[in-house]
Amino acid sequence: MDYIATTLDNLVHQTAFFNLEIGNYVMIVVACVFLYLAIAKGFEPLLLTPIAFGMLLVNIYPDIMVSIEESATGAGGLLYYFYLLDEWAILPSLIFMGVGAMTDFGPLIANPKSFLLGAAAQFGIFMAYFGAIWMGFNDKAAAAISIIGGADGPTSIFLAGKLSQTAILGPIAVAAYSYMSLVPIIQPPIMKLFTTKEERQIKMAQLRPVSKLEKILFPVIVTIVVCMILPTTAPLVGMLMLGNLFRESGVVRQLQETASNALMYIVVILLGTSVGATTSAEAFLNWDTIKIVILGLVAFAFGTAAGVLFGKLMCKLTHGKVNPLIGSAGVSAVPMAARVSQKVGAEEDPTNFLLMHAMGPNVAGVIGTAVAAGTFMAIFGVF
Length: 383
Known about the structure:
Layout: H1 2-14, H2 22-39, H3 45-60, H4 78-87, H5 90-102, H6 106-110, H7 114-120, H8 123-134, H9 139-146, H10 153-162, H11 169-181, H12 183-193, H13 197-200, H14 212-229, H15 234-249, H16 253-260, H17 262-276, H18 281-284, H19 287-317, H20 336-348, H21 355-379
Helix pairs in contact: 2-3, 3-11, 3-17, 4-17, 5-10, 5-15, 5-16, 5-17, 7-19, 7-21, 8-9, 8-19, 9-10, 10-11, 10-21, 11-19, 12-19, 12-20, 14-15, 15-16, 16-17, 20-21
C-alpha cells in the first residue's frame, strides 16, 4: 500500500497544478482570450493562433522553452530550438521572402510618390525610440521597442535579436503582432480624426500600367541601392526582393509558389509558437512589458497619423488628386493596412476604390521599416 500511495502522490505532484504560480494562470487566461480573438473574431488567425498556443504551452509546461544550458538533461525544450531560429534572424528573413513572393509591387512602381507616404509613417518608430529612452530603457532596448510602431512583427523580432535584447523579445513580438491584428480597430478612428468627409471622398486617377521589365528590374535595383547604403538591411530587404523576383520573373513558378505557400506557412507556425513561448509569466508580467505595450500603441497611432497628415499635404500640393486615407497604409501591416484605407474610403463613397493606391504606401512601409531597423543597427555598430 505504501508503494501505491507513494506512486500516486508522485503522479499528483507531477501535475501542473502543483507547479504553476498565479502569474501562469493569468497568462493561460490571456492565451485563451487571444485564441478567442483569432478563431471567433478572425483577428489575423494565421499569426495569433500559433502565438496564443505557444503562450498556453509555456505557461503550462515551462520546460518546453528551457535552454540547453539550463536543462538538467543537456537538451533544450522543443520550442527553444524554434526560438533559436528567431534569434538567428532566420525565420523573420524567410517571412520577408514569403511576403515578397505574394506581393505585387506594381502600385508602388506606378506611383513612386508612395515612397514618401511610407517614409512618413515611420515617424512613429523614431517617436517611440525617444519615448522608450524617457521611460528608462537603454538605447538598444528603445530601438528594438520602437519598431513596433511600424506594425511589423518579423522586423521587430529581427532587430531585437540583432541588438541582443532577447529579454524583452517576447513582449515586443506579441505587442507588434497584436497591433498588426488590431489594425482594423486602431486605425479608422485616427484616419477619420485627421481627415474631412470631402477628403475621404476623393477619387484618385487610375494607376498607369506597369511593364514586366519594370517589375523585374525593381527588386534588383532596390536591393542594390538599399543594401549598398545600409548593408545591415540585406537579410530583410534582400529576402523581400528575392521573393518578389521569384514572382515577377515568371521562370521560377515553383519557387514562388513554395515561398508564398508551403514555406511561408511552415515558418509562420515555427515563428508564432516560439514567439508565444517567450511569454512566460515571469518574463511577461512586469512593468517593462506594460511600458512596451503602451509605447507600441502610441508609436503605431503616431505612425498612422503621420502617414495621414503627409497624405493631406500631398492632397494640397496636388490640388486634391491624392486621398489622404492612403497615407495610413504606410505602416507595414501588408495588406491589412491597405484594406483598411479601402474600407474607410468606401464608407464615405461605395464607388471609391482606393485599395491599389494604398498598396503603394503599404509596400513602401515594409521597406521603410526594414531601413529603420538597418539604421539602428548601423548606429550601434551591429552587423
